[in-house]
Amino acid sequence: MDYLLGIDIGTSGTKGVLMDREGKIYALAGREYSIDIPQPGWAEQNPKMWWEATIQVIREIIKESKVNPKQVRGVGLSGQMHGTVFLDKNLQPFRPAIIWADQRSSSQCEFIYQKIGKERLAELTGNPIATGFMGSTLLWMKENQPEEFNQIYKVILAKDYIRYKLTGNLGAEVTDASSSLLLDIKRRCWSEELLDILGLPFKILPERVHESQEVAGYLLAEVARSSGLLEGIPVVYGGGDQSMQAVGNGVIKPRILSSTIGTGGQLFITLDKFTYDPKLRIHTFCHALPDTYHLQGAILSAGLSLKWLRENILHTSDSYPIFDEDVDKIKVGSEAIIFLPYLLGERSPYMNPEAKGVFFGLSLKHHRAHLIRAVMEGVVFALRDCLEVFKELGIKIEQVIASGGGAKSRVWRQIQADIFNKEISMTQSIEPAAMGAAILAGIGVGIYKDVEDGCRKVVKLKEEKTKPIPENVDIYTKQFEIYKSLYQDLKEDFKRLKEKGV
Amino acid sequence: MGYLLGLDIGTSGVKALLVSPEGKIISSKTVSYPLTTPHPGWAEQSPYDWWEATVKVIKETVSDNPIDSNQIKGISLSGQMHSSVFLDEKMEVIRPAILWSDTRTSEQCKEIYARAGGLDQLIHYVSNPALEGFTAPKILWLKENEPENYKKVKHILLPKDYIRYKLTGELFTEVSDAAGTLLFEVIKKRWSTSLLEKLEITQDLLSPVLNSFDLAGRITKNIAEQTGLKFGTSVVAGGADNACGAVGSGIIQEGRVMVSIGSSGVVLAQTNNPQADQEGRIHLFNHACPDSWYMMGVTLSAGISYEWLQKKLFNNRLSYTKLDQLAEEIEPGSEGLIFLPYLYGERTPHNDANARGVYFGISGKHDQRHFTRSVLEGVAFALKDSLELIKDKGVKIKEIRAIGGGAKSRIWQQILADILGEEINLLNIEEGPAFGAALIAGVGVGVYDSFAEAVNRIIKVKKTIVPGIQNNEIYNQGYQLYKKLYYSLKENFKELKEMEMESNLYS
C-alpha cells in the first residue's frame, strides 16, 4: 500500500489527512489555535505554534491510522496565504508572523498604488493590494520598525516555514508567492522591478520560486523521530490553501467554478492562460498546475454574516439545520428583503473597506426567518457580483462545485443554484485543502502522472446535485439588479458614515 | 356638579370616559369591535358594530358608578378620521365603512389630482394632498366600483358624526373632521364647492359644518331609555381624534407641539396662522378650539417598529423593559447603525407607500443592543422630519409635550429630546382623545368658560426632559445621513415594489 500525507496550516488550526492513492482516508487529525491581536486591526501568529501543531497532527495520524510509516510515500503542504514569517540569520523566526488578516499596512497599500500605478501593478501581479499581503507588510515594517526590518534575513510564507522545518530546505513556490504581491506573475518569478520600486532587497526572498508539485526536500532525521514518520520521505512544495482546496475538489480545469462559503466566501476558477482584471476587482494567482493560473473573487463576510445574525442579533441556540427548516418555509427572495453582507467592508468586487451591511426592504410581515434567508441570499448575491467580473473577462462556466460550511446547507445550495443559474455539485472530499496537498505529494513521488491523473483517482463527486429552478432564477435575476444598484446608490453614504464617525 | 362624558370611536373599539370638572376620571371603559380585511390593503368596519359598542359602553358607564346621569351635563365625541359611512334615504348603512387605513384608492387619488388640476391646485382648495386614506377618494371609489351602492347614497358621514346622529337624530359634522375629507376649505372653514364640482360630488351628500364646541343636539328619549342617559342631555359636536387628543394634552395655543409615540407617531402643532405646505408634505387641519388650526406630520411605524423588533425579530423573548435596558448600554448614534422606520411605507414627509424599513451601516460589532437603540433613534429621526417641516412653516416652537406609549420609556424620552434638540414635557394626565372630547363637551355646555380655562385647570407638566448638548450634536450628524438615505434609496424602493408585484411575492 502507498499512503500520502497532506497537511494544511490554516488560520484557525492545522489539519492533516492520510489517504491511499484512491483517495480513501485512513486518518484525519487537527489542532486548533488562535490569532493574536496585539492592537485592534493587527493579526499575528507564532510560527512555532504552527510547527508544534503540525508535529502533533502527524503523530496522531500515524498513531490513529495504524499504517506502517514505511508506506507513507510523500508529504504535501497547504497553508494560509499572503502572510509573512520573519527569519533571522539563524533561520529562526525572530518575531510573530504577520498574517493575511492584519490591517496595519493600509497607508502602505495607498503608497504602492501611487508609486506603481494601478495599471502596471495589475499587469505585473494580477492583484489588487490588500493589507496583510507580504509586500505591504514589509513596507510597513521598513517604515515603522526599521530595527526589526534590518534583522530580516529571509521572509517566507506560512507553509514554507513548515516545509523548512520538515526538510531543512528553505524555498518558495508559485501559488503562495503570487499572493505576496512581489511576484511577476506572468513569468512566475520574483519581480525585480517591483522590489526595486518598493525599495525591498531581493536577497530577503528565497532565491527561486518553484512549481507546487516539485519535490522540495526530504524529511530530517530529527523530525522523523518526533513525528513518527521515516527519515528521507520526499516533501513537495505544496501550495496556498485556495489552490490546494481547488485541487482537493478537482477544480483544475477551466470552466469549473468553485464556490466556497466559509467564514469568508470565494469564487475560484482555473485559467489555462494568464488573464487579469485591469480594474483589480478580483485576484489572479498562480495555480498549482504548471503554467496555469486561477481567478479568485473573495468576499469577507459569508458564513460570518449568518454567524453574526445568529449570535449577535437573534441570540438563538437553534442550530444551522434548524435554520434550514425555518428558511425553507420562506419564499424565494425573502418576500423582498435584500441584505448586503458588507459587515467588514468588502473585497471583491468593490475593494471598499468603508462599505457596511444593510438590510433593505423590511416590512411588518417579515420575521426572523425572513432575515436569515435574506442573509443567505445576500451572501450568494455578493458571490454572484464577483462572478459578473469573471464573465466580463470572458470566462465561461460549465460546472459549479460548492464547498465550505455553507455547502452543508441544502437551502443554501439551492440558493446558489438559483442565483448562479447553474447546477451545483459537491465532492466527497473531506478536508479538500489537505487532500489537495496529498495529491501533489503523489505527483512529486510519481504515484500520479500529473494533477489531472491524481484528481481523477482521488476526487469523487457526490451523487446529489442541486438544479436551478427556473421560477426562482427569474426572481433572483430581478433582485440581483436591485442588489447591485443598492451598493452604487449607498456608496457615498458609506463614505459619509465613515467621515462623520456617526 | 357638571360631569362630562367623552366618547372616542376608535379603530379598535369605543372608549367612554366619565370625567369630573376637575379632570378626575370617574369611569373609563372600552368595548372593542372587529376590523375586516376583505382584500390585502383593504380595511372595513360595520357602523352598526360601532353603534352597538357605543350603546353598551354608555350603559355600563352609567350603571357602574355612583354618579347619577342627571349630573352628566354634556357629552361629546372623538372619532377616527377620514373613514366613510354611506347612508341611504332611510338612514340605513349601505355597506361597511371604508377606514382611514384602507389603501384601495390609489387610482382615485391620481384622478383627484388630475381633476383638481394638479397638486398645487388641490392644496389651494383643501390645503392637503390626496392620500388613499382620505374620504374623497373613497367616494370616487364607490362611484366607480359599486355604482349600485353609490346610487343609494344620500348621506356621507364620518364615524363619530354617525354615532352623534344616532344619539341625537341630528345630522352634522364639524370642522376638525370635515378637514380630513379632502372636500373642505380648511382655511376658510367651508365645503369646497369648486372641488366638489370638479369631482362631481353633490354637496347635498355632506352635512352642515359646526364648530367642534357647538351644541349639536340632545339625547333623544329613545336613546335615553336604551342607555340610561338622561333625556335631553346636551351633545356637543366634538372632533377628530387628533384634534381631541391635542385638546386633551393642552395643545391649544400657538407654539405648543404634541409629539405622540403610539403605533404611529404624530407631531402636531397648534397655529393661528394656517399655511398649507405647497408640496403637501404635512397636513393642515382645523382644530377644535375657535379659529384655530393645527399642522400635523405622521410617521406610520413608530411604536409599531418597536413592536416589530420585539415580536418578529426577537421572538417575544425580551420584554420592552429589557429592550430599553439594552438600548441604554449603547452610546447615542448606535455606533453608526441607522434605522429607517418605513416598515409600512411612510407618510410625512415622503408620502411614499413603496418605502420600506432599512438597517444601514451594519458592521460585525453590532448586536441586539444596537439593533434596538437604532430603532428608537430612527423613529425619533422620523418625528424630527415632521417637526422640521412645521418649523419651516414659520411656527415658533415654545413647548413640546410627549404622549403615547413610547413616551413612557425613559430612554426613548431622552433620545427624543436629544434628537429634536428641545426640552420635552411629560403631563400629569394622559387619557387620549376621549378626555379631549370630555373637555370639549365642558366648553360647549359652559362647565368651562374657555378651552384655556379647562386646560389650565386640569393639565399640568409633570416632568421635563432636557436634551444633552453633546448628544444633540452627534444626532444632528446622524440626522443628516438619515435624511439622505431615503433619497439614495428612493428608486430602489420603487423597483423593489415593482419586483414584488411582478414576482407576486405577497404572502
Automatic annotation (TrEMBL), chain A:
CDD domains on file: ASKHA_NBD_FGGY_EcXK-like
Site (Important for activity) residue list: D8
UniProt-listed Gene3D superfamilies: 3.30.420.40
The family this protein is said to belong to: Belongs to the FGGY kinase family.
Organism (species): Candidatus Infernicultor aquiphilus
Official protein name in the record: Xylulose kinase
Binding site for substrate: M81, H82
GO BP term (any one): D-xylose metabolic process
Reaction(s) the record says it catalyses: D-xylulose + ATP = D-xylulose 5-phosphate + ADP + H(+)
Annotated ranges, domain Carbohydrate kinase FGGY N-terminal: 3-248
Role played: Catalyzes the phosphorylation of D-xylulose to D-xylulose 5-phosphate.
EC numbers for this chain: 2.7.1.17
Automatic annotation (TrEMBL), chain B:
Superkingdom per UniProt: Bacteria
Classification via PROSITE patterns: FGGY_KINASES_1, FGGY_KINASES_2
Active-site residues from the entry: D241
InterPro entries xref list: ATPase_NBD, Carb_kinase_FGGY, Carb_kinase_FGGY_CS, FGGY_C, FGGY_Carb_Kinase, FGGY_N, Xylulokinase
Keywords noted in UniProt: ATP-binding, Carbohydrate metabolism, Kinase, Nucleotide-binding, Transferase, Xylose metabolism
The enzyme's E.C. designation: 2.7.1.17
Function in brief: Catalyzes the phosphorylation of D-xylulose to D-xylulose 5-phosphate.
Family: Belongs to the FGGY kinase family.
Listed name of the protein: Xylulose kinase
Gene: xylB
